[in-house]
């Protein structure tokens, strides 16, 4: 037995040479985060109610697009700050769907942080001025490729089909195209064998049509309805209160709404930001309707909303960072289920009016070329480059029949992205076979030792 022990130890010493060169990868060993699901008008993590405590994260802003999940040094730096703030969610507006996101998604996973992701880019999006030609197969191909790139991560919480496409009464005619994209994304997830990741829309806080847009995204057949609704809200400007800000009226207006609702941006900076609204947002005066929110924004991009100032490779916390940290730390989530609406339910479609230029719930049919992606996948992604899609052709040629967005062609086997990314934390770089070799040798020596006894 001593001979076996010595030989096995020698084999382990010879073969167990380190191969992981990235320190962050070498130390990660936590399990995948449990995917977030929708029940009634709330999000759940297992059997526990889930409230978003997050920030909007896009270093460089829209003028200097940077995919924070494709830069290990950048995401490592910022995730440390997220942990200090006590976050469980981040939103990213633009990613490069050709890049490798395994490391950063794994680091988010290990920090207990979920991702809410916008699938659009400046080149591939719905044009509010001319929505019909911009809803085309080239556009859908690119957003389907983004879904494929992120659907395999267990900490992908949700996808946004659009952000503030409708920003006044005159652009409400874009609503059918936003809703069609949402329908197509949900159908694509199911048809390609991905898990059911929530898909919804991030709306502008337009007082004259905010409720109509929410109702519209939740009316019609099941395949046409969103999984959640969110809007960007800057109406609470410190010092303020639940009633002075008008948040009490928004809660009243959305009481009974059947989908999860959250703030995709908040944090008015008219005066000093102390984030007093955090106390209300995570209290039972709001949790029967709201599931938390995302503070705008992580990095200072010239608009005085930043929590940190990025200079070179450093991110220095600003005064707002400390204020938000303090607000979160002193505000606990409600016990129990927060008074959510467990039954959910569809809304009635809003009637056409002076401030809502949509009749009924007729949606454009998915372009024929894009429908083929449900079976074949979208092919090669284009990332942050490409020719753009808004006038690429291949548009919708008719009106969809109710129910046409149902999953009808489930992909055979496991989807490509799910195979590559079965969980965020399990992706530890190149496969190291040496532990398997050591294990095999140890097993072999065990039998030899037993035979010699």
In short:
This protein has helices spanning 2-15, 23-27, 72-85, 102-110, 131-134, 137-150, 175-191, 210-216, 247-254, 277-281, 319-329, 368-371, 373-376, 416-420, 434-452, and strands at residues 36-39, 42-45, 48-50, 52-56, 89-92, 114-118, 156-163, 199-204, 228-233, 261-266, 290-295, 308-311, 314-317. By secondary structure, it is α/β, with parallel strands linked by helices.
How would you characterize the overall build of this protein?
The strands form 3 sheets. An 8-stranded parallel beta barrel has the order 4-5-6-7-8-9-10-11. The chain has a 3-stranded antiparallel sheet with strand order 1-2-3, with no helix packed on it. It starts with a helix and ends with a helix. It is built from 15 helices and 13 strands. The chain folds into 2 domains: 2-19 and 432-452; 23-420, Alpha-Beta Barrel (TIM Barrel). With 453 residues, it is an alpha/beta fold. Residues 1-29 and 413-453 have low confidence and may be disordered. The protein is 31% helix and 14% strand.
Under the CATH scheme, the architecture of the largest domain is Alpha-Beta Barrel
Q: Could you estimate the helical fraction of the residues in percent?
A: 25-40%
Distance between the termini: 8 Å
Summed up, the helix count is 15
Give me the side-by-side strand order of the main sheet: 4-5-6-7-8-9-10-11
What is the CATH class designation of the largest domain? Alpha Beta
User: Helix/strand/pairing class, anyone?
Assistant: alpha/beta
Number of strands: 13
User: Which range does the strand content fall in?
Assistant: 5-15%
Number of domains: 2
For the sheet with most strands, the description reads:
8 strands, parallel, barrel
Question: Low-confidence segments, ≥5 residues, pLDDT <50?
Answer: 1-29, 413-453
Q: Write down the overall mean pLDDT.
A: 87
> What overall form do the CA principal axes indicate?
globular
In CATH, the homologous superfamily of the largest domain goes by the name: Glycosidases
Rounded radius of gyration (Å):
24 Å
What is the H-and-E element order? HHEEEEHEHEHHEHEHEHEHEEEHHHHH
